Amino acid sequence: MSNKLRQFVDKLKPHFKKGGKFEKLHSVFDGFETFLFVPNTTSKNGTHIHDAIDSKRTMIMVVVALIPALLFGMFNVGYQHYLAIGQDVSFWETFVFGALAVLPIVVVSYVVGLGIEFIVAQIKGHEIQEGFLVTGFLIPLIVPVDTPLWMIAVATAFAVIFAKEVFGGTGMNIFNVALVTRAFLFFAYPTFMSGDSVWVRTSTTFGLGAGTAVDSYSGATALGQVATAATQNVQLTGITGNPIGFWDGFIGLIPGSVGETSVIAILIGAAILLLTKIASWKTMFSVFAGGALMALVFNNFGPDTAAAHFPWYSHLVFGGFAFGAVFMATDPVTSARTEKGKWIYGVLIGAMAIIIRVLNPGYPEGMMLAILLMNIFAPLIDYYVVEANIKRRLKRAGNK
Amino acid sequence: MANLIKTKRGLNIPINGRAIEMIGTSTLPKEFALIPEYYHGVTPKLLVKEGDEVKAGSPVFYEKQFPGMNFVSPVSGKIKSINRGERRRIISVIIESDEKMTYEIFEKSNLSALTAADVISKLQLAGLWSFIKQRPYDVIADPTKTPKAIFISAFDSAPLAPNNDYVMSAQMADFQTGIDALAKIAKIHLGIRAGKKSPFQLVKNVELTEYDGPHPVGNVGIQINHLNPVNKGEVVWTVNPQDVLFFGRFFNKNVVDLSRTIALTGPCIKSPQYYQTVVGANIENLVQGKIKSCPSHRFIAGNVLSGIKVAGNGFLDPYATQITVLEEGNNIYELVGWGMPRFRKFSMSGTYFTALFESKLIKKLFGNMKYKWDTRLMGGKRAIIMSGEYDKVLPMDIYPEFLFKAMIAGNIDKMEALGAYEIAPEDVALCEFVCTSKLPLQQIVRNSLDLMKKELE
Question: What distance in Å separates the CA atoms of residue A68 and residue A267, rounded to the nearest whole number?
């Protein structure tokens, strides 16, 4: 099989070389060839052997880590739908409904993003870089299920072009591309994105799941309820008015963006990222620590609002906090790159997310803005960490 | 008791083909070569022409900037050819051995009566100066500058590196003489492996320091960084321990005897062991008949991390103490490598099963995993994506990623501030090995050091 395929690729190759018929598509061809086969370029000088890791393997591992969140998200979309219309259906029916609702978002995100990547790679004469494999997978997980596909297409195109390609492509971007997509949706279509109607799909999907929402239905997310609560102590409810608590947030059968609701699924992903050593445990841990600490401060000394008195442990499981801490804050490109810097970066993200949640009534969720804000500060944090090293070196020279 | 320095960061790459402690029989080849490119930064001025007779120790060319600095023939015979490249640059001087090994006899000297300046000029005249290198810039030492110290690492921690204790134990008298000569110039720091009985423990006239940790702890650069780092305007000299023997023989016997014991190592060698040879020798009859059949081989003068690629009938790099042979691998096509388990591939990251195979329990139950190595990059070149990778394998007080970025940008002020004076290409070889983005870091460092030298001197 592998040999036949190789022969086929070798036969096609000359057409995509300089002077060949499809010269213009050589980046795309390269992309597919290296996707099929490990490149056999050997070292010329320098290190003669290399570690078997490459950026493809790294990105694929992140995608694998995201799969539990995606699968759970699909199930939850179906679960929330049938809960809203008051029907009791089998596990598979629930899952298929959710899968059919989520898959179009995945497809749109990948087609738009990869399309732009391919075109840019061709124009610049680069190899196709695999950064978007992860971004394209993250986007469907951080948007509400009822976001129109055209909005996702526009937002993805905006993010890939203006947050990534203009900076030089994978590895050069300042902001997390997936979060820029989310931020674009949030600020470009605020009336649509910040209401209570996008989190649960009450209409049909490809003809499946017909029915009308039950009378007690309300699509507000947990953080939405906290933000609009009139009293200091708020009793969270699910979409049919049933009371929910910490463990519902942990398990994740509640309304929210597709992949962010289940802390269990996210923790499985976190375990994969930490075992493969792709994500930094320092960043991950310090985001949670910073968030918990800040929430504790508000719990004890905060203003008399529901958000300030929302228990610190609940802050960590509801909304996008856990998802952001595990998958977004740890993006190596946009995070702080020094080991000391990662602690500071993480703590500030956690703390900032809670501050936005508590003190800014306009935004029930602060994680996205906190991470984007700290993306800007990451180079500054690194600057001071590295500057300390430079000072130490100068001092050493001066002491002689 | 010697000082003990422990390092944690680094990596011992599990590659098989370590030489057993036995010296195989081999004959010296017919051809030897002096290749100016191997002496980085040297501009050669020829002293011979084709057909000239030379003895072992006769000057072949000298360095343009320092006319006393000779480069000498390792054997007696005649100049067979002088190969030139573009703009008549000398590529190599080939010497045909007469197989008699007659030595040029140098003026007898009483070492204890010599001054530092005498030692320096004698070593230059004898063509041994090229074995002294300097930090900054990792080039042959500038004889007009006084170093603050001389560093020698008695052990080599690189993959499959020869065991200097074994190679040199019978020649400690020469080593001591070499040390005594160098000690006239500056204080000598000798680094030895902690917790191991070694003939180097008895060396006098040096400050001993014990080191413990994974590779690159044996690199002299790491040892300098821990003991007495190079600051702006300072110079430190470094010498390989085996090359100190040349100095010792010179002062003991008044001849230039460049014979050395090298390790023939690597996964493609049938029975890896040590062989006797001479600097600059053609490696063909050394490797002939000793390699396993593979579709194609990579011959390396030196170790797999920072050695020089040579042809199967190429010549030894003067600094090389080992030859490594492994599979080239340019005809291997691995299907969807990013998704396959790839059990026989090694990775420091957790994306393969390496961590499992390298765990103590599995090793105890099933023995050591034999990984398959070849010279493929195993991926495409990218911008730097992962952070913290380089820090894990560079036990120096330096932020490597930021230094490399300054180097790629050609920002000399930044390089200076971030520690470029302390670093040599070989120190970052492991960074290059683990790099997800497959950047040629040793080349980047080499080019930047050359740029700095040109701009600042």
Answer: 9
